[in-house]
């Protein structure tokens, strides 16, 4: 599943490539994943915005000769937790969750004409397409079909159930060492490896990065939070920020299906220390990396380095 770095990479790309694009069509062949319904979604993202002053009623006869109205324009993209938020100039917002295997592909007119990009099989499970006035498209490829799209009023984004259920964002300036300690103090009986995955507490960390974070901090993932020293807590906090920022810089981790908006893999998988390295030598002590189930998910760690 795409985690914070992968989603942030996509959002960064969207801000470079689709801001200013005008939506002229939306197609879907998997309508059950479009909320609240396909027809409502399409109507609201296609809701027209007057090009004239709000105080001036367009002359209908004049509109036959020139464009008085246009479709909604994308004014920005942002991330909340693992969700992609695309704001439109008609006061509507598209919310997208990629879930297990989803990713967004931006195809310019030039790319679509050449037809040589995005040939990798993982990029060909297209279930939704936004078409822009420029001729470019934004396409949602999702092998498992767990991803979803929704449209809400922009002012209501923070009040949606999906967002309200999230804890503080792992890369938010508000997520400080003090805040992290407060979270741990309230969850004294929790296991640190499980707590880091709880999106209700800290949003954005997934299975790949919790393994890497705890390895960097030198902390065994099975430790109860109550047993962590002040020094260990600080190490984990710094590791959270360091690992996630580095992964964003390296455009995420491609462990399986994840691709960026150009259909390309991330590169953080090239520097993974423990995740996916079961039975291999630890890069620090030459002991063996092991894998265990923790919170119904596999976690990778070095029992020699991580105490």
Give a short summary of the structure:
With about 300 residues, the chain is α+β, with helices and mostly antiparallel strands.
| C-alpha geometry | globular
Structural class: alpha+beta
- Report the major sheet: 5 strands, mixed
> How do the helices and strands follow one another from N- to C-terminus?
HEEHEHEEEEEHEEEHEHHEHHEE
Number of separate strands: 15
Specify the CATH architecture of the largest domain: Alpha-Beta Barrel
Report what the structure shows.
The protein is α+β, with helices and mostly antiparallel strands. It folds into two domains: 4-164, MutM-like, N-terminal (N-terminal domain of MutM-like DNA repair proteins, Alpha-Beta Barrel); 168-301, Helicase, Ruva Protein, domain 3 (Orthogonal Bundle). Helix content is 26%, strand content 23%. The protein has nine helices and 15 strands. Strand 9 (126-132) and strand 10 form a beta hairpin. Helix 8 packs across helix 9. The longest helix has 20 residues, at 230-249.
């Amino acid at each position: 599943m795409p985690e914070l770095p992968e989603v942030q990479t996509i959002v960064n790309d969207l801000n470079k490539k689709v801001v200013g694009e005008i939506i002229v069509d939306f197609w879907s062949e998997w309508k059950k994943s479009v909320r609240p319904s396909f027809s409502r979604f399409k109507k609201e993202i296609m809701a027209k915005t007057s090009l004239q002053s709000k105080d001036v009623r367009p002359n209908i006869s004049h509109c036959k000769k020139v464009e008085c109205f246009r479709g909604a324009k994308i004014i920005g993209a942002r991330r909340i937790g693992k969700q992609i938020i695309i704001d439109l100039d008609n006061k509507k917002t598209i919310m997208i969750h990629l879930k297990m295997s989803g990713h967004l592909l931006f195809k310019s007119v030039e790319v679509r004409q050449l037809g040589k990009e995005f040939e990798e099989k993982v990029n060909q499970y297209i279930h939704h397409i936004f078409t822009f006035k420029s001729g470019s498209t934004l396409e949602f490829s999702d092998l498992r079909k767990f991803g979803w799209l929704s449209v809400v009023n922009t002012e209501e984004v923070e009040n949606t159930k999906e967002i309200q259920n999230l804890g503080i964002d792992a890369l938010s300036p508000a997520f400080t060492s003090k805040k992290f300690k407060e979270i741990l103090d309230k969850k004294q009986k929790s296991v640190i490896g499980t707590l880091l995955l709880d999106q209700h507490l800290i949003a954005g960390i997934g299975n790949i990065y919790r393994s890497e974070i705890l390895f960097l901090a030198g902390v065994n993932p099975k430790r109860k939070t109550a047993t962590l020293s002040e020094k260990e807590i600080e190490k984990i906090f710094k590791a959270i920020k360091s690992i996630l920022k580095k992964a964003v810089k390296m455009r995420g981790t491609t462990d399986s299906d994840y691709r960026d908006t150009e259909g390309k893999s991330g590169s953080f998988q090239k520097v993974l220390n423990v995740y996916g390295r079961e039975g291999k030598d630890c890069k620090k002590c030459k002991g063996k990396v092991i894998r265990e189930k923790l919170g119904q998910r596999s976690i990778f760690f070095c029992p020699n380095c991580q105490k």
